[in-house]
Structures are given as C-alpha cells and as structure tokens.
Amino acid sequence: MKTSRFLTVIAVCCLCLTSVMNATPLHAQNTEDRKEVTNSVGMKLVQIPAGTFMMGSPTGEKDRFDDETQHQVTLSKPFSMGRTEVTQGQWKKVMGTEPWKGMQYVQEGDDYPATYISWNDAVEFCKKLSILEGKTYRLPTEAEWEYACRGGTKTAFSFGDNEAELGKYAWFRGNAWDIDEKYAHRVAQKQANPFGLYDMHGNVWEWCSDWYGEYSSGSLTDPEGSRSGSSRVVRGGSWFRVPDFVRSACRNYVTPEFRFNFFGFRLVLE
C-alpha cells in the first residue's frame, strides 16, 4: 500500500484476469450499438448509461494508494462523454490558440491531444463550446470519469488485472518514455474500453471538475467532490507514468492553473 504520489507544481517529472465477466460485462461487450453524436468541431461523444458501481479500489489491489477508499456510487442520469481526449485540431477550432506550440515533449498535429492545458483553460473551452453550440459542455466529475473508465468492470484496468496487456490499451512509460517516444500520442490508436472510449488509461492526465479531497466511506448519488480545495483532480495517468498510475481507481491532483505536456482533458455533454 502506498500513500504519496502528489504531482508538484514545481517539478512534475512528476497475473491473469480476475474473471472474464469482471473484465467485460455482458452489457458492455458491444461498443458499436452505443448512441454517438458528432458535434460541430468533429468531436465524437458516446452515451454512457446511468448506473451504480464501486468507486475506488479494494484493499488487496496491487499498487493501490490510500486515498482510493472503495465506496458505492450511483450516477442517476446518463451522459455523453468524448470518445477521446480533446485534440489539438478541436482546441484550435474553438479557442484559436496553440498553447503547446514550440513546447518540450510535444508532437503537433490535429489528432494529437491538446496539452499544456490548465484546469482553468479547459473550463474556458467548455464555456466557449457551449455558447457556440447552445448546449452544455463541461468537465466530467471524478465519479463520472471513473465510472466511464471502468465500463462496468471491477478490475484494476478496464481490460482486467494483467499489466502485460496494458500496451494494447494505453500509452504509458513502458511504450512511450522508455523507448524515446516522449510525448502524448495520437488519440484512438489503442483498443477502446467496454464503453467504446479510447485512452482512458495513459496518454494524458485528464482534468475532472472536482476539488481533490478524501472520499466518503458511505454510499453516494451523483457526487461532485469536495466543496473547496487547492488542487483539482486529474485522472488516467499519462505517457510518462508506470502502470500503477494508469489504473482505473488511481487519483491525482494539481493546482488549477498548472500546465504541462501530459495534461489534457475530455468533455461531457449534458
């Protein structure tokens, strides 16, 4: 059990499947029949059903952290989530800027994730896109993010517990940094999770709407995190991180103004 893995704002360099049913529940096996919409900037969003799940990790999960207290969460309404991270091409269409341009450890191109994006920047993107389309776009709550990442599974990753399979689903330290591909890779190049979402494990840390805080041990419905705080939640791990940081339950946090080459985001459409 581990207790510390805070991403500082100064220096951020910062087994078999448990069961086939755990890794791929029947309701999530077919990702093609999920309702998908494509918006005005070419972003594809897939509908995520309402449901109840166990958020956090069991005490016996390999490499878990102490802030992953397992508790039951119900999401009472369906929502649509981006199939991928927001890309550079989508960012430019809405914001007209390129905050990643000329920065270290970045590949440029319309299909690469938009990086060097702070929480504040991501929220501004949501506001502008909402005005542009007359709809409500926002960051996911931490509970929505983990629920969508798991896709109905109960294992360490959305494909099971076997780290040897991680390279099929994620860009992480072993197939990026360690082989001198030190950047966020093009989106949707790996296999999707059971809900049809790409890159939920690895590639870039993704901002959530919540302030970081300790979990409740009780059951919750539609939680939105702590009422206040100094850091916002990021989820999913990145191309720089080892497998324990890209697990479905792994949490991290950083100040909302911070930008770096492995911070990005994906959207929810209400």
Q: In words, what does this structure look like?
A:
The protein has 270 residues and is an alpha+beta fold. The chain has one domain: paralog of FGE (formylglycine-generating enzyme), CATH 3.90.1580.10. Helix content is 13%, strand content 17%. It is built from 4 helices and 12 strands. It has a 5-stranded antiparallel beta sheet. A 4-stranded mixed beta sheet has the order 10-9-7-11, covered by helices on one side. The chain has a 3-stranded mixed beta sheet with strand order 3-4-8, covered by helices on one side. The longest helix has 15 residues, at 119-133. The relative contact order is 0.23. The model is unreliable at 6-32 (pLDDT under 50).
Attribute tags:
paralog of FGE (formylglycine-generating enzyme); five-stranded antiparallel beta sheet; four-stranded mixed beta sheet; globular
Number of strands: 12
Please indicate the percent range of residues in DSSP E strands (runs of 2 or more).
15-25%
The biggest beta sheet is recorded as: 5 strands, antiparallel
Radius of gyration, whole Å: 17 Å
Number of domains: 1
Structural class: alpha+beta
CATH fold naming: paralog of FGE (formylglycine-generating enzyme)
SSE order in H/E notation? HEEEEEHHEHEEEEEE
Q: Number of helical segments?
A: 4
Taking the alpha carbons of the first and last residues, their distance comes to 37 Å
* Contiguous runs where pLDDT drops below 50 for at least 5 residues: 6-32
CATH architecture: Alpha-Beta Complex
CATH homologous superfamily assignment: paralog of FGE (formylglycine-generating enzyme)
Overall outline: globular
Write down the overall mean pLDDT. 91
Quaternary class: single chain
CATH class: Alpha Beta
